[in-house]
Write a structure and sequence with these properties.
The protein has two domains: 208 residues, Rossmann fold, CATH 3.40.50; 175 residues, 3-Layer(aba) Sandwich (Rossmann fold), CATH 3.40.50. It contains 13 helices and 15 strands. The strands form three sheets. Strands 5-3-1-6-7-8-9 form a seven-stranded parallel beta sheet, sandwiched between helices. It has a six-stranded parallel beta sheet with strand order 12-11-10-13-14-15, with helices on both faces. Strands 2-4 form a two-stranded parallel sheet. Helix 1 packs across helix 13 and helix 10 crosses helix 12. The two termini are 28 Å apart.
Length: 391
């Protein structure tokens, strides 16, 4: 199958970008031809010599309407049309909640099947001040909700997200749980080995991840009761929230035994940190799913996650991971893991790694491919509508 995949910004180090990279690699390994349309990409996750061909999203330069959203969309539509001519795809997929790109596909080829993978139906990090930054990264805040009816198939990462999409926009999606990269499976941890009292958290430097709250909780509730405890935070820069990274760094410097990485780490280094950690903490309330906790589970760190997250749909609380709602519940869960005996920890690690294995790239790619086939069939039934739009 020839697949046109659109994600406007692959230079951010977030979940949608990471998942896109894993999917592109897995589709290519299965023999499919993937053309990726994007404005920018990181060399670590999307190298020039990788599995995909790339077509650049570019702004419209010939004339301007005076309406910034429209100018960027027209540039995107022209880029999509170029990509369609180059790749001659069988189906189109966007791996972020931007159905405007699929409208552009329909304008180019009305009969083409289209699908979308949604991490959450609205952009939670959008503010009045950063709207221009979203536009410069070919995102269309305030418009994408209008076009959720365009794709034949909509996939989401959890029932949590599916409920939000239905409540907000009356769209019924298919749940396709995400995956983590193969190295987190192929590196085999020693699940019997005793670990030091290391608490780990990984994510972008955005307020929703609550690293600042975790540092304060570590200082106030963990360190006084477990004096040899150590907190490790791995964060990646997000230009929309540069102020927050500075805040977390300042707090980390002020608390004893807090170590902070502010760079994109290779998988081998992340694996090492997961294998050294006794407990992994993911404090975002309302996490749509949570890929980093799965990475931790695969490497034997006991995860503590929000009870309102998508991940709790697929784990058994107290067996493969622990859940919490309030900050005090997070502190109690962290302390519980730090005080566990090695036999109990080993049993929990075994169950966690077995559960994490379910969410491997092969399973994820196969489910996405099945949905792309459905999109192709549905498109043939809907094509007269888009053909009228085209003409």
């Amino acid at each position: 199958m020839r697949i046109l995949l659109v994600h406007p910004h692959l230079n951010f180090y977030g979940g949608s970008e990471r998942l896109t990279g894993i999917l592109v690699g897995e589709l290519a390994r299965k023999g499919h031809e993937v053309t990726v349309v994007t404005h920018s990409r990181s060399p670590e996750w999307f190298p020039d010599a990788g599995e995909a061909r790339y077509v650049d999203l570019r702004p419209r330069t010939d004339r301007h309407t005076g309406i910034e959203h429209l100018d960027y969309f027209m540039g995107a539509a022209e880029s999509i049309a170029d990509a369609v001519r180059i790749a001659e795809p069988d189906v189109a997929l966007t791996t972020i909640q931007e159905p405007a790109y699929l409208l552009a596909v329909k304008l180019a080829v009305p009969t083409m099947g289209t699908a979308m993978y949604i991490h959450f139906p609205i952009e939670e990090e959008l503010t009045r001040e950063n709207v221009p930054l979203f536009l410069r990264n070919f995102r269309f805040p305030g418009l994408y909700e209008i076009f959720y009816g365009v794709p034949e198939v909509v996939m989401v990462n959890s029932r949590y997200t599916a409920a939000a999409l239905y409540d907000m926009f009356d769209v019924r999606p298919d749940v396709v749980y995400p995956t983590i990269a193969w190295p987190f499976y192929t590196y085999v941890p020693d699940l019997e080995r005793s670990r030091e009292n290391v608490v780990l958290s990984v994510g972008r430097f955005v307020p929703q991840k609550r690293f600042d709250v975790l540092i304060e909780l570590f200082r106030r509730r963990i360190k006084p009761l477990v004096p040899d405890a150590k907190l490790v935070i791995v964060g990646t820069y997000d230009e929309r929230n540069a102020w927050y990274m500075d805040r977390v760094k300042s707090l980390a410097d002020s608390v004893e035994d807090v170590e902070l990485y502010d760079a994109v780490l290779p998988d081998a280094k992340l694996v090492q940190l997961y294998q050294e950690a006794k407990v992994y903490v993911h404090m975002r309330i309302g996490e749509h799913f949570g890929m980093a906790p799965l990475e931790a589970m695969a490497q034997g760190a006991i995860a503590v996650v929000s009870r309102s997250s998508g991940l709790v749909e697929v784990i058994n609380d107290g067996e493969e991971a622990l859940t919490a709602d309030t900050d005090e519940e997070y502190a109690a869960a962290i302390l519980r893991v730090l005080r566990m005996g090695n036999d109990e920890l080993s049993k929990m690690r075994q169950k966690a790694r077995m559960k994490a294995w379910i969410f491997n790239p092969d399973r994820f790619a196969n489910e996405v491919l099945a949905n792309l086939e459905v999109a192709r069939v549905k498109a043939r039934r809907r094509s007269p509508l888009f053909e009228r739009l085209h003409h």
